[in-house]
């Protein structure tokens, strides 16, 4: 160990089941006792301070994304998310055209608005008291993602099933054979659907991810990489916007002051989005592995160590935000780390902002009059690697159906 550096303590009091239920008090204690700690149940050093998470995220030469024996590799293949530059950069560039802000504004926002109309009608049909997550948030964002990727031969239900089973595979630390079987089944279904779509998109130029990718003049991505990057995008592009819709709806319905602010000034929907992902980061933890002996926040970390950068925790660090557990759309949340800050910074950020802040939330609050939390059914929450509401029952007095209906 290098002189002058602290030894990271073992935090054997941290249990994954408790993290899943409510990670915030555990993270608070870790940040105050030791923001770099070895957590045996996670098999990782958990990094919980804002400064530590940021420093590791922006230094890929020391903190590699190419983690050895990552379960994500087995579930989805070797996508750009688990590569370092220059290999990562080549694939990332090819993924950008359909997700960049101009394309989102010009093409996708309208598509998202049509989908919001359609899935809000379906939610209204399900009736006051039904679950917002399954009734609107999940099918709405799954249909958006289906269109963005260009899966003309799949349904939103396919996207939901694929996404969940692949994520379950990537987190299958107990090595449950049933979880592997379901992930493999989805992986095979995606490969088959992709094969058909590669044919379909040739000669039909469009704005979808697959369409841009397949007609690129300067780079032909190998099939294996297309497959793994599509699986990673399905695993990573669905539950996060879904969970932000749930978290922001819950937060606004829990504070009449915050809700009044945004209803009076619709320009604040963007602030609602940013504060929601600061408050509950949908991707709570991202893995990294050290390439050399190094340090973070003054703690020694050996070469080859597996780390968990805990974004959920960093976003509530008191050294950056006052009263961080409070949801406050006036605080200025932009420094949050929810999209990452390094070379892997989220490619879908503009699509996520558009479907949630420009379209989904304004439509929900304008069409469901007297919207409130169901007093007879509690919302449920879970997760620390990914976190969001599991169920969110809502009630309303009157619903306005879309003009399409
Ligand atoms: C609020 C919603 C979202 C959040 C909070 C989020 C968060 C993140 C984070 C933290 C990363 C970096 C992970 C790491 O470094 O290991 C990431 C990467 C990525 N995200 Fe998102 N994401 C969101 C929505 C989306 C959507 C809707 C899409 C696609 C339509 C998407 C596509 C991607 C891709 C392709 C990457 C990999 C980028 C790279 O490796 O260079 N994300 N996202």
UniProtKB/TrEMBL annotation:
Binding-site residues, Fe(3+): 346
The entry's keywords: Heme, Iron, Metal-binding, Monooxygenase, Oxidoreductase
EC number: 1.14.13.1
Single GO molecular function: heme binding
Sequence positions that bind protoporphyrin IX: 92, 288, 344
Class in the EC hierarchy, top level: oxidoreductase
Pfam families: p450
PROSITE patterns in the cross-refs: CYTOCHROME_P450
Similarity section: Belongs to the cytochrome P450 family.
Protein name, per record: Cytochrome P450
Organism for this UniProt entry: Arthrobacter
């Amino acid at each position: 160990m290098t002189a002058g550096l602290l030894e990271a303590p073992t935090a054997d009091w941290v249990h994954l089941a408790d993290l899943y239920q409510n990670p915030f008090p555990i993270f608070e204690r870790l940040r105050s006792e030791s923001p770099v700690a070895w957590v045996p149940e996670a098999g990782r050093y958990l990094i919980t301070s804002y400064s530590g998470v940021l420093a590791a995220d922006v230094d890929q030469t020391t903190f590699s994304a190419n983690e050895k024996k990552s379960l994500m590799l087995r579930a989805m293949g070797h996508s750009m998310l688990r590569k370092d530059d220059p290999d990562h950069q080549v694939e990332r560039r090819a993924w950008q055209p359909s997700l960049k802000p101009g394309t989102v504004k010009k093409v996708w926002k309208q598509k998202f608005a049509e989908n919001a109309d359609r899935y809000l009608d379906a939610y209204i049909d399900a009736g006051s008291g039904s679950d917002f997550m399954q009734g609107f948030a999940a099918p709405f964002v799954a249909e958006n993602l289906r269109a963005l990727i260009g899966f003309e031969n799949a349904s939103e239900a396919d996207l939901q099933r694929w996404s969940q089973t692949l994520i379950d595979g990537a987190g299958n630390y107990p090595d449950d054979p049933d979880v592997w079987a379901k992930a493999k089944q989805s992986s095979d279904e995606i490969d088959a659907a992709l094969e058909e779509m590669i044919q379909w998109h040739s000669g039909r130029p469009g704005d979808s991810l697959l369409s841009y990718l397949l007609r690129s003049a300067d780079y032909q991505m190998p099939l294996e990489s297309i497959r793994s990057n599509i699986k990673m995008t399905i695993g990573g592009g669905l539950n996060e916007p879904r969970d932000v819709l749930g978290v922001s709806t819950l937060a606004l319905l829990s504070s009449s002051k915050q809700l009044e602010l945004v209803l009076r000034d619709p320009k604040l929907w963007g602030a609602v989005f940013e504060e929601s992902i600061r408050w509950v980061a949908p991707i709570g933890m991202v893995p990294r592995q050290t390439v050399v002996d190094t340090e973070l926040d003054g703690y020694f970390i050996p070469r080859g160590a597996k780390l968990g950068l805990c974004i959920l925790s960093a976003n509530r660090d008191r050294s950056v935000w006052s009263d961080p557990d409070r949801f406050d759309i006036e605080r200025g949340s932009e420094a949050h780390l929810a999209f990452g800050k390094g070379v892997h910074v989220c490619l879908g950020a503009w699509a996520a902002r558009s479907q949630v802040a420009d379209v989904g939330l304004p439509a929900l609050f304008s069409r469901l009059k007297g919207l409130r939390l169901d007093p007879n059914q509690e919302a449920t929450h879970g997760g620390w690697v990914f976190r969001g509401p599991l169920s969110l029952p809502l009630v309303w007095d009157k619903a306005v159906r879309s003009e399409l209906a």
